[in-house]
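As a warm-up, study this chain.
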Amino acid sequence: MYNKYTPWSRDGKVKLKRIWGDYRRPRSLDSRGCLALVLAHLWTKGSTVMLGMLFGCIAAITNLYIRFGRRLLPRVLHRIDGSKVKLPDQDDISLFQNILY
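Now compare it with the structure written out below.
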């Protein structure tokens, strides 16, 4: 999904990537780096300058990839069944109750 979308747009929205031949705008971070940047940002709430130094990007690019990753992450997690929050069924509830006693 990371390769289908691009952070580069004039209006600031995540859009489908247009590929003209073999030319693509080079990315500063791959998908794992973008995920790590978003998780580091969510975990530390550090400044973009410090995160940029950790990930080897300038502050503007760091901001762009944080926004891009935060917009893609819910879309990816929505497709994974194990990432959804749901109530346990009755068998799991009784199992959890028996563990406490």
